[in-house]
Amino acid sequence: MKSLLKYLKDYKKESILAPLFKMLEASFELIVPLVVAKVINVGIKENDKGFIISMCMVMILLGVVGLVCSITAQYFAAKAATGFAGRLRYEMFGHIQRLSYSKLDTVGTSTLITRMTSDVNQVQSGVNMFLRLFLRSPFIVIGAVVMAFYVDADAAMIFAVAIPVLAVVVFSIVFANIPLYKKVQNGLDKVTLATRENLNGIRVIRAFHKEADEIENFAVKNKELTKIQLFAGRISALLNPITYVIINIALVALLYKGAGRVESGAILQGDVIALVNYMSQILVELVKLANLIVTLTKALACASRIEATMEIPEGMGEEADDSRKKKAAENPADIIGKESMEVRSRQKNANDDCVIFDQVGFTYEGAGAEVLTDMDFKVKRGETIGIIGGTGSGKSTLVQLIPRFYDVTRGRILVDGMDVRDYEPHALRQKIGMVPQKAALFKGTIRDNLLFGNKDASEEEIMEAITVAQAKEFIEQKEGGLEAKVEQGGRNLSGGQKQRLTIARALVRQPEILILDDSCSALDYATDAALRAGIRELSYKPTVFIVSQRTASIQYADKIIVLDDGEITGIGTHEELMESCQVYQEIYDSQYKKEGQ
Q1: Tens digits of residue pLDDT in 105-141
Q2: Residue 517 is inside which H or E element, if any?
Q3: What is the pTM of this model?
Q4: CATH code where residue 401 lies
């Protein structure tokens, strides 16, 4: 929790004023039993109506001032807690956005969603309750004991015995509950994951008539969560009855002791009432304190999960490693300078290598064997590279290494002559237009989605992109054209339309390197061919990587890389591979026979 307190730094004033106003309220509350005692001992005893009325006015004044202090404290506490949670959620979202694919794969999306929503809300509640009660409740308890001793020291000894017993009970239950609440949050992660998987895969579940199986699977996870929540709740529920039993036993003892003291003339009846009121105040505040501790227990468990998330290394190499830093420091040009030198070098020599894979190997985090082994090839500027292979051969992984969605575990990748790990990720990705396998569109207009690729794109650049992507015709047919609405995920568009828009979005930024990761699977052959022809005619001549399952999509590429089980089995043109690469021949023949070409 300590590392998260820095997000309260902008709310120091509120964090101080909230407990101070609560202590003011508590001070007025502690005076009330003495006023009641005066009413009984003086006003009622002597039948002095004027004194009774004046004391009642004092109590009303104390109540009004206390209410104002309470509302003020609540305002400051809420402002600090919500501001803290908002800042924490913002920083957490930014950190998650910077995590590498490897880290996201390891942690899991459902866990991150739970931590950003439920956990942050729990911590917000904990901060709010803490600011309101962490001084008030102990102050009332200790103040009530002090005031009880002021009224009558002998009777107040009962307070001295009851309070430690209550403290032992409360803290024992709390410490027993801390690990249970962590289990509750982990169970919530599993339920969230099951829900997310079902919503994402609802079409497949219905297609295979697996609704009953998924309902049963969800019921099992939900039952496990319910069981641990009930167990934790039962332990928490022990707080109130046990504290009430102890307080009521103390109250009986206090009345017994007080009656004896009144009979002996040591104290008056009003003093006994004051002692009972102080005992009641202690009871109420201990119940509040118990609830505060329960809330803080949940908040601390959630805070530890949030801290663990914030401590995850970003993993995409926001900075170069130590050896590379040292090498860069010895070089007269820094990283940005080197990038500028590379640009000048490219201007002198338009035929140099754009992308180089130098004995690259890659292993997913936690995996036992390499997914890619000895990837070694060079790509000239402006070339079109086709990548093909069977399912699971590593095609997508290969192209995801170029923009550093994953980092190589062996070897190196050079872009414009510089190791990709020496680039700032933003600078590297500015060079690249990436179209993933799954078309991802955002809620807004078609124009909004296109400008996502380059917010400063001109109208001419947008029109060129949608024309090359073969999206112009269907955009013009839509009401509003570029201003036509797109629902979240592109639900109101067909698969082919979504793919064409995502390709246009990548083209809008006019990238040096264009990666099409099996992003034309929903296009017919004529549209696919027109798209490839349009890309070849682009004025800025990007280096193009086309990942595809179809030989027809890549057979006219300058170079085709054939992958099989993470290894390169052939590199060459279509004609060369048809003569020398058995894997490519098998893929081509299977599709030729199937498609009747």
Answers
A1: 778 787 888 888 888 999 999 999 889 888 888 888 8
A2: strand 513-517
A3: 0.70
A4: 3.40.50.300
